[in-house]
Each structure stands twice: as structure tokens, then as C-alpha cells.
Amino acid sequence: MTARRRVSLMVTCLGDLFFPDVGFSIVRLLRRLDVVVDVPPAQTCCGLPLFNSGYHAEARAVAARTAELFRDSEHVVVPSGSCAWMVKHEYPGLLAESGLAALAGEVAARTYELSQFLVRVLGATRFTSAVPGRVTYHDSCHLLRGLHESRSPRTLLENLSGAELVDLPGADECCGFGGSFSVRLPEVSTQILDKKLANVEATGAGCLVACDAGCLMQMRGGLTRRKSPVRALHLAEVLDGGRP
Amino acid sequence: MTTRAEFFARIRGELRKKPALFAASTAARPEHPATQADAIRRELAERWPETLEAFRLEFERVAGVFHRVASLDDVAPTIDRIARERGARELVSWHAASVAGDGLSRALTARGLGVHEMPAGEAADGAERARLRAITARADLGLTGVDLAVAETGTLVLVSGAGRPRSTSLLPPCHIALFDRTALVESLPQVGVFLEAWHRDGAPPADGAVVNFITGPSRTADIELTLTRGVHGPKEVHAIFEDGGLRG
Amino acid sequence: MVDIARRAGARMAVKSKSMATEEIDLNEALEREGITPVETDLGEYIIQLAHERPSHIIAPAIHKTKGQVAELFSRELKRPVEADPEELTRIARAELRQKFLQADIGITGANFAVADTGTVVLVTNEGNGRMVTSLPRVHVAVMGAEKVVPSMTDLMVFLAILAKSATGQKLSVYTTLVRGPRRAGELEGPEEFHLVLLDSGRIAQLGGPLREALSCLRCGACLNVCPVYRQIGGHAYGHTYPGPIGILLTAMLEGTGSVKELAHASSLCGACADACPVRIDIPKMLIELRREVGDQKIAPWIERVTFKLLAQVLVRPALYRLAARVGRVLQRPFARGGTISGLPLFLDDWTRTRDLPPVAARTFQERWAAEREAAP
Q1: Reported pTM
Q2: I want to staple C277 with a disulfide (CB 3.0 to 4.6 A). Which of B164, C64, C165, C297 is the partner?
């Protein structure tokens, strides 16, 4: 018998404050796959919002604290591609100046965005849909171009029992969120979003799936504002149909 | 304005600050480009029919019109046909020595075309230069030779020089270029070898100030991204391939 | 440049497309000397008639419809003109042909220069580059000092990259290699040739944070894929070079202060870096610019205070939890049916066009802790 895998969930600030259900879906999915899940206490944020706005000293302090929280984790699983990218791609450089290069490198190597962890580490691809019918998938920029991952989420959705994945035209184009960009240039951000949502509605899908809480906040905010019947859900919520 | 010395000193100063920043290496250059150019020519002499076919495909893809004739005797009829189809009467040509020799001009004149062959060297004075320019600007057809025909891109490479004015392939609305198998090369890197050779250790085809790469007719998409041809340069480019060899 | 033109006794200068001359406002300088600059790239000609500036590096008049172009042409020619691209192109050919033949001086940019042969390289699809370098008596090329490549071998690599990324061609229609004025025996070509190298902040970046931007070929590929550029167009950037690369070039040429707002005009989606044929990491450098803007304290103080406060909250979990509780209280008047559809003051920047999820009644970590206690 092999030892059970252990995962520490990095719930992220948006996941913690606005989308707690996503976190619980992830916990259920992992437990069903016989993974032991823990949530290191007193988490706040990965520091990406500070980093991307150019506040690097401040981001470094936040990143150092977060890396420290996951020092002993076997695997770190993150619900958002952007936060996973921050940890994997930016922590090593950012924390080198604090003498934490080794820690940052280790945590970076053990960190996975959820879909990548499910497919590439666990080899788990068979789930039951929580939202029967047509679904479509939006590539989050950081997951797609930062972590070069477009396959894993699609593998999961293609194999999802009870759901049919349809292609989203321009799936790889930005939703217009961009963190502080969404409030610094709200008009432009919304125009980009409108284009995205028009593409979504044209697919006839009842559910729009994404792997990033930022994109979800933006796209869901646009969909409910236009009273669209399309729901924007996190991948974990969609995969979580086999709920006991 | 800055002096040359100041300018370079500034560049060196900045580069010294962080010496390892530009790690990118430059492309590997041939050590003896003329020798390599000869080697390319010899290799291609074996497989020129494939190269020609590849050139034809690319040249047509960029909207060039390709013609193939068996011998020099068939060139004049082909040009005559192109002229008749377009109602063209006046043709300017590079000096015969840079195209296919004297016979072609005579044959074209005999067929009733107004043939204006450019002089082998400079114009005697400004007035003569102006006269020749006016002829070129009025002409319907421009006839030139070709120094390299590039299969990869369908490109004609023309070196300017004595008897090879740049405007012959530029001002008339229809450019006709005549070439044989010796001009064929396969790729842009091979063109690079020839350019290096012409500059360093081989004999260039001519000693003018300009080398032009021509890849199809002049085009623009500046109005609503609609493709239109012949905005400044020729609207049509014809390439005539002669099988027998233009230089005997 | 004006000196050269004046010495040449020039009254009219024909120009082929050159962002470098846009950068130095050359047209205005020539006009002040009584020399008429005529743009000959069709797109540039159109915007010159409209008294505008290019909105795209490769397609400068992409913001104009054929109807608008026809109107400009009929105003110029004082006769009605049909709004058909083919016909408009024919008219431009005839008009500009006269200018090429009359002009005293030809001004071009340069796409590349080859160091070991002393060659300046011009790439065009229309052929105006050839006209401008062949017909006038004087040719002046203006180029950024970063455009030099070592050899012809390198040039061949870059020509293919530029054509593919700029317009999807294997090679642009005309590539013109110029190595000076007319040579002995040549019938035509300029008697004088001048090359002007522009520094304008470029050399200082050789060791600076924007050095990668010095590799830019001006192909425009990053503009075409940029979601922000596609929404706002080139003019909205307000400087010579638009789009994501334009923000970097503007910072390089005019200093960081000139892009304190522009540095944020990107969602950092990374499409530009993906499209860039010379792999310029544009998002990384935009972040770098934002950092400089913050470090130099030229960002608005309210913004700096906000981010510094945020950082304080994010390193103190107790404060973070408190902030969540405060948020829940403050959002009460605005949260209806699980969403927030309107907020007061600047917070409305989000909610004017989008709903906002409220802070959850219990955060994930609060629920998780509660469950642990219930079933340890």
C-alpha cells in the first residue's frame, strides 16, 4: 500500500473571502481521491495584487509569510492559475532578496493549480458534473500563458460525465479583469468583458467554467448584471457533482 | 547632435555596466562565403528542376505570373504576347548586356514594340538623365535580368549598377524579369551567403549602391485592410524562365 | 535634418513610412522651414491629409473607413471620389507619382542596418521605399541606434521574422538594401546619402530595465493581439508608439514619468509576449515600470497609501479577519440577493458595469475552523 498523498490547500484571498464554496468543493474532490487535505491556518494572500501593481517590497513581505506557511507541505494546491503562477514563477526571484530563495524554490516546485494537480499528479480525470448540459471553458491568462496549461482543464471537462464541453471562440483571450486594471480602466475592462460574454452566450452553453477566481469575479459580475442565464463557475464546483 | 566618438563612448559605457546582459549569439557566418556560394551553385545544378518548381509555386502565391520558355528565341514572342494582352507599346529595358544580349531588343523592335534600352553607364548630363527618367516613367513595361531567384519566398533579387537602373523594375506598371537556372537558389540563408560573398570575397553581379528584393507586385492593405495592387510599384510582375541558359 | 534639407535647397521632401521621424516631430520642423513633407505610404498619406497621427505601427490609417478616405481625397483633389479601395489606391498612385518625381529630398526610416557592410535596409510592400531612395537627389535615413545587426547572415533571419509577424508574409514585397549614394556608372540614385542615428534614451537602456525593448522590430504583432489596444485604438495611447510595446518605448524615450498612467493600461494578459517574435517579456517590463512609478513616488499618494495599507493587512491575519468582518458590516446596505450591484464613491468603478460578490457570510477559513472544532 502506498502512502496517502497529502495536500495543503492555498485558498487565496478571493477564494477565502468571496468563493468559500470553491474551497470546499476542492476539499471534497481531493478527499474522494483519498488525499489527505489540510489548510494551513491564518492564510491571507499570495501577494500578486501588490506585485503586479509594482509594490514589490510589500509583495515580498506577504510572499515570505505565505511561503513560510507552506514550508512543510507535501503538495500545495491552488484554485487560481494566477496565484499558482505567482508562487511558481515569481516567488523565487522575489524572495531571493530576503534570503529565502531555497524555501521559495521548494514551495514553487510543490505548488500546483488544481486542474494540473488532478490530471498531471493524481491522473484523475473522471468526475460527475454538478451542472448537467453544455459547458464551455475560458482559459485564464496566467494559467494559459504563464503556466502553459490549456490541456488539463479540458481533459477534465471532456471526460465529465453528464456534461458536454463546447468550444468557446476566443477562449484564450483575456476577460478584462487584470486585477487593479479592472477598476483603473473600468470602461476598457468592461468592453473586453462584453466581447468575451458575447462569445460565451453564442456557444449556447449553460455554464462557463474557469480556473481563476479573478476571471470568475469579472465574468460572473458581467453575466448577472446582464441577467444572463449562463452561470460562471469554478472548475472545482463543476467537477463536484458526485457529492454524497 | 553628438559626435561619432561621443556616441560610441556612450554605448560602450552602458554596455560595461552590465556586461553579461546580451548573451544572444549572432548567426554563424560562412568563413569563405564565395567558396560556399560556389558550392551552393554546384549542388543546385544537380537539382534545379525541383528548385524551379518550388520557385514557381511561391512566385505565383505572391501573385507573380510565371512563364517558361525553351530558348532565347521564345523570349521575344512571350514578351510580345504580354504586351499585346495589355495594349502595351513602350518597353524600357536594362542594358542588353545585363539581360540577354543584343538579339532580344532587336527581336522585340521587329515585333513593333517601342524598345528603350538604358545606357551601359552614367548619363552625360542632367538633361539626359531627366530624358531617360521621363521615358521610364511613361513606359508600359520594364524588362530586367535577375541575379537571384529565391524558391523559398518567390523573390527576385536585383543588384543595381551600370546599365541596371533601379527604376526599370519600379516605375512601369508591369515588370518583366528574365532569368535562367544560374539565378536559382533555394532559401533566404543561401541569399545571405551570396550577399556575404558579394561583399567580401566574391565578384558581385554589379557594383551599384542598391540591392532590391522583389516579392510579387506592389501591394497595400491600408484602406480597410482591403488588398490592392500596384500602389507605387508595378501592379504586375512576370518572371520568364529560359531553359537553355541566357549566357550561352 | 533640417540643415541637410536646407543645404540641398529642398522645397519638397518625400517620406516613406518612418516611426523614427514621427518620434522627433520631423514634419513639423520641416514645415517651419518652408519645406513640404509628403508622406508616401498610402496609410501615412491618408492620415497626413487628415492632419492626424498614425494609430498603428504597421497600418497607420487602420482607424479610417474607405468613406472617410474618399472624403479626404475629394477635398484634396477638389472633385468627387468614389469610396472604393481600388480606385482610391489608383488615385494615390497618380498623385504621389508626381511628388516622387519632383521632390528634392527623400526621407526614410530604416528597418535594419547591417554593420559589416554599412548597409541600410528598408522594407515596404508598396514600393514607396524604393521610390524615395532612388529618385530624389538627396536621401536621408533616420533610424534608432538599436537597429543594427552584425551581418547579412543575421539580416536574412530578421527579414523573415519581420515579414511573418508584421503581415503574415514570407517576405515583404520590397526589401531594399542601400549602401550609400549612387555609385560610379549608375544612371540614377541620390547624389548624397545621410544616415541619422537616434539615441533619445535608447543607449541608456542598454544596461537598463527596459533593454529587452531595444530588440523590438516594430512588427506590430503585439498590438494586434492586445485586448486593450483592440478596444481603445492607437491614438488613445497619446504617444508616437501605441500598444503594449509602445508603453515601454515611450518610457524609454520620454522617461518613466510619461507613462505613470499608461503603465497600468494593460491587463497583463500576456498575449503580447506570446505574439512577440523576439520574445520581449512585455508584461514583466510593464510591472517593472509600475514599480518605478511607485518607487519614484509619482503614483498618486492615495494609491500608494492604499497599497501600503493593504500590505499591512495581508501580513497580519488578525487584521485580515477584522477587515473581512468590517466589509460584511459595510456591505449590508448594498448586498441584495447575494450580489452587490451598486456602491458609493470610487467603489462604483467596479459596480457601474458589473455585479460584485459580497464578502461571504462566513469565509472559507472561518467555516473550516468551525468544522474542525465540530469534528476534530
Answers
A1: 0.91
A2: C165
